[in-house]
Amino acid sequence: MEAKYYQNKSGQLFFLNSLNRKIGFDPNVKHRLTDGEISQEPILPGLIANGSLVEVCEDSDKASVSQSPSVQTFKNVPVPRNRTNVDLAEPIGGPYTQVSLNPDGMSRLRDYQEPPKHSDIAVDPSRMSRYVDTQQSLQGSMNPPQIPVQSGKVPPLPSGMMKNAGITPPGSIFISSPNAVNAPQNAVYAPPQQKKAALKNSSPEVYWNGPANDAGGYGKMNRHCVEGLFKKGVSVQLDLFKIPDFRSAVPITESMNEMINTVVSEDAPSVWAVMPQKYLPRSGRKIVYSMLETSEVPDSFLDKCKMADELWVPSKFNMEAFEKRDLGNLELVHMPLGVDTEMYKPMELTAEQKSLVQIKTKGFVFLSLFGWSARKGTDVLFKSYLREFNGNDDVTLVVVSRKDGSTSTAKIQEIRDDIHKYIKTYCPDPSNPPYIVHIGDAMSEEVLPVLYNMADCFCLPSRGEGFGLPYCEAGSCGLPVIATRCCGQMDFLTDENSFLIDIEGYKVAGQEIRCLSSYYENAPFAVLGEKAVDQCREYMRFVIDNNSEAKKRAGILRKDLESNFTWDHLVDKVYGRLRSF
Description:
Helix content: 25-40%
Number of strands: 22
Radius of gyration: 24 Å
CATH superfamily of the largest domain: Glycogen Phosphorylase B
Structural class: alpha/beta
Oligomer: single chain
């Protein structure tokens, strides 16, 4: 079978499900593919046809897809260059001096330290099981670096500096990326009948699979669930779902490290808190904890969920979508997410806190925090802001956004190029646009409450949300919230506590959204047209001119979240559910 070599010219990361590997975005790496493999993988012919994958001649430096590093090969892991001279936050389109965030304070791609000796590694690699298909699919990664795991308490935050979640602290340990998928051979499991009898008089145990070290929404959901269950005395075996290393911006705590080293019985219930997977290799009751941003459930999504006994979803929006389908024996459970109202709260910021986010703003500050994509309504946000205000208005739009989750210089520049296009297209006078600041780096969770409290209003006209954690966090910090009247956020947003933009129904999204996930191919998203832009403009102007009314609604939202939507509420519900088995 003829083999050819291809280079990835697209700059995108391609996951090849049938080949159980992925094609990295480095154009200098050559990927060996046979004609038979290309015929097996539906996306490959299209990638080749549109020039994303370009055939190259065989030569002396050809290379097949590399394998994940083991403990023995970690010294070959490339060290990312520290971007000390890159502007991480830049005023766009304004006459003001360009500024940057404190480079010591922002988390970025890790600066990897020399790993400790093998004898110092406290985590047994053979216990780092990840379900088989996921582990195999990641063997083609471009030598992903080792995952730093914090072995002690988080060091205190130095004065004037943000805790850098991406820098390995002194005394860290490292987890390898082993091929082993099973628990160690010497693990002792209680017989099922003994374990069930014991559970009647003790706390339950659970196997939990999810990206708890991710900086995104799934990461927060997983962290708060397992940490909360751990505090309640639940025996939790935490299996970190493998994610690209640049997303692993959250340090692993001492309790998470203990959970990683815990082994529960095979008949313990398992929770897969991530997008539904191909295989759920556990013998106990299986639970998928996932979400969709669409108003209908794709067959491919539902088929994977049906491998489980239960499906937990975070919003009534998801409940309604699944209830329209034939679920068979799959039990549907509403498990709404929440917010830490003690961390995210209204604050009078000190000079030291403000120094954590060194950006210049002017006047009334609108904040929007999201992953850069059309699904998040970037077009509606910028159309509204650029048409309603100009450079003479005392107002700022702060956009905290990464593209594809990356903090690379290239991805940051892509976002800023898009913003400049919006200015040229939608601003009545492109030579005098309103003030815009873009933050393109990852923000540690300790700094996010400071960022929210530096703003006066949160605005995110999203076309699709599974739950909408940024709305929760902003509302908990006492910010007026402008959002769309749809999707997961409708669990906690109302006309009394927020400013809701009407949608014009749902329809299958355009290519710019469909390309984000195979689940989005024929999925309907909220329609936001010119009416939504006009309404968003009106709300932006309203919260400035009627700030007392806006703050009144924000106060109601804060109380609603405190009463019904905290992480403690979620942990209590998960705990009760586990005890019922």
